[in-house]
Protein 1
Amino acid sequence: MSTHIYDLVIVGGGINGCGIARDAAGRGLNVLLVEQDDLASATSSWSSKLIHGGLRYLEQYEFRLVRESLQEREVLLKIAPHIIEPLEFILPHEGSMRPAWLLRLGLFLYDHIGGKTSLPGSRGVTFPDRQYSAGLKPSLRRGFLYSDARVDDSRLTVLNALSAREHGAEVRTRTRVTAGKRAAGLWQIKLCNVDSSEVDTVSARGVVNAAGPWVKSFLDDSVHVPIRATVKLVKGSHIVVPRVHDGQHAYILQNDDKRVAFIIPFEEKFSLIGTTDVNVASVDKGHQISKEEITYLLRAANRFLAKPLVESDVAWTYTGVRPLYDDGAANPSEITRDYVLKTDHQDGKLPLLSIFGGKITTYRRLAEHALDELRPYYPQLSGSWTAGEALPGGDMDSMRDTVSDMLKKHASLPIDYLTSLVRRHGSLTGKVLKGVRSMADLGELFGAGAALLSEREIDYCIREEWARMPDDILWRRTKCGLHMDAAEQARAAEFIQSRVAILRKST
Ligand SMILES: Cc1cc2nc3c(=O)[nH]c(=O)nc-3n(C[C@H](O)[C@H](O)[C@H](O)COP(=O)(O)OP(=O)(O)OC[C@H]3O[C@@H](n4cnc5c(N)ncnc54)[C@H](O)[C@@H]3O)c2cc1C
């Protein structure tokens, strides 16, 4: 048992746990973040990857959520410009859909409700303009254009953990919190390393339950604290197909069940189509896309696409479970996407703060609200700061300048490769490539082209970013897995495992 006393133990290394760890550590708290698998291994890597206000939430009168999300879009574009970028959306429109006046009103609100924005406002477009109707059926004659942003969700999570560590937090991945109780004036938290089965107990003055879809089971089964709130588990799936349209914009498509689907350019050669809303009884039931969901997404896209997609076009799928706050809505699409924080304490001490709901987009504000809730227990807390400090790698002027700077330093490396590295690591690319003069210095290479994964980057992700398993690198620190064939994936996986084995022997 460790004798060290943490101010705060945070359970869960998704976006919310990592965001709170960053904020709390930067305000002077001594923080331990514990994740049972990899950072962002659950819902935080299975999102639609949008930093958005959520146009459709206006229909549900979620004005607070939309306002906060749009304000956050501005903040996040500034603090993480390497992994978050503006994205134009086209909303095709015809008579059978929501009336044009309603869409115009919604978009007017969307343009203004968040206050000043750096992104262009919405406008109507007509489709003789092929730029904005690429890939669509020629019968579609008009639509609307508006702005939002896209994010690399798993990297956003890792960058928050990196920043938390820079501010003094300790981060333990592949470690499960198995139990916790208040005893002798402190929280006693039991941890189990999932690889070695070693157990440890740590003490803390407070606990944050950021276990995402496991928020309620953690309360019921691990700490036995009854809280009057429930989580609604809603599965959402995406399919990835070869790119369906030229151009950098995304489509938002109105489906005939009143839901919307997105088609988003993804990883240069692909399109990401999502998503679904399916109630599930447990997290285990939410890991895999069903045949019905694939059919649903193909149909939603094909209502608009000139060249219909078929099931064999699907190159990859992913599925996650939304941990939504149960507000009583029966339709899973109508359950609030806003977050709710619940705090339990013992005689005004030893808080346990649990997080229900939330979005990637609002994680930073959620963290600020969490620290407001915790303030009575930690009078030493300093003020909010995370809006003003770039996330690791985000302190760069522009993508173009950073890539050309890298090109000057590493002239023999292909520009496409340098660009994809800068998209992942921003200004930290120099650290990844320290001492690299030629391709040979990158070590063994896996995959090809812009999706090249090098021994050098693998070592960096293991050393600096907690990567321990092949999927951590192939699908979360990078998306290189998507561009590799099965043999390339297998070779990369074998290499990653051998590197981690060496690391384990040496520690
Ligand atoms: C299909 C879909 C699309 C979405 N699209 C968007 C979008 O475009 N934009 C947006 O803003 N939001 C989107 N979201 C919402 C967003 O992804 C989630 O709200 C967010 O990722 C939740 O983060 P979290 O940290 O609460 O949970 P998670 O990411 O699930 O993290 C919880 C972590 O806790 C860990 N954990 C659990 N129990 C323990 C334990 N006992 N010990 C240690 N660790 C534990 C888990 O392993 C997990 O990593 C989407 C969600 C889904 C499912």
Note: The longest strand covers residues 231-242.
Protein 2
Amino acid sequence: MGGQMRFNAKARLDASRTQDVGGSGGGTGGGGFPIPIGKAGGGIGGLIVAVIIYLVVSNLGGGDAGGALSDSAFADSSVGLSGQAFDYATCKTGEDANNSDECALVAVENSLTDYWKNQAQVADVFQPERAIRVFHGSVSTGGCGNATTDVGPFYCSADQTIYLDTAFYDTIFKQLGGTATPFVRAYVIAHEYGHHIQDLLGTMSKVKTQQGKKSDSVRLELQADCYAGMWAHDAETTPDAEGNALIEDVTADDIAQGITAAKEVGDDYIQQRSGGAVNPDQWTHGSSAERQHWFATGMQANDDISACDTFSARSLD
Ligand SMILES: [Zn+2]
């Protein structure tokens, strides 16, 4: 039935930016990775952009009885405690990525880097994210404070780093009804990488309003979905350092799964799943329809980043 996204078995991977920092964060599991200091002069230092779940966690603490997705439902992410840190340096080829979710993360990061460094509107300022730091349970960031699995994957601008507890896919995302296929995992990373692109382009400074249907926060998040769509469309044809495409066989099934995932992380969908009323005033990431719309918009953007200008768009869905 269509199969799933595969990686070019012979491609070489660059795992230098991906690391497992263990359960307590702060680089203890990573073997000497320096903890970056916040950006000099950083007006936006410490901005933390979680992909999905921030809304759930922040709103369900608020006393409404009957929330199906209570904080306690997220609390036991005991998968992979420190001491089981994965050595990402063992991810060397596309074949490794075909055989392991961890190495697939490296491959997706490589593809995103290859894609964005060649985009004309980004090339002048491009640099890869400083790191993807995989943690287990909790982590100390380099400028965005401490975070736990509940927050979901997030990007910290102060250290230009993507943080991810892979247990997220089996806990929170599953509770939302999601299935973490390889392409869905890639979509999540592509969204976070989108925040990195926004960081490079200075877009984050546009965010003045943090909540609500037409808030800047929603516009920022939908733009990250759009950027993810831009990459998804070109993933099969983006050349790696050796001139070959790293990703093969992005299927119609993959795309459908990505679109479904975009629905499952919509603010209205999460509010419904949590047993509460749909309240647009509390939205931070956009509705299911909006997230699907902007992912699809990115896929049709033909590498023109201006197609993703959610800040100028009058209608977001
Ligand atoms: Zn986000």
Note: The chain has twelve helices and nine strands.
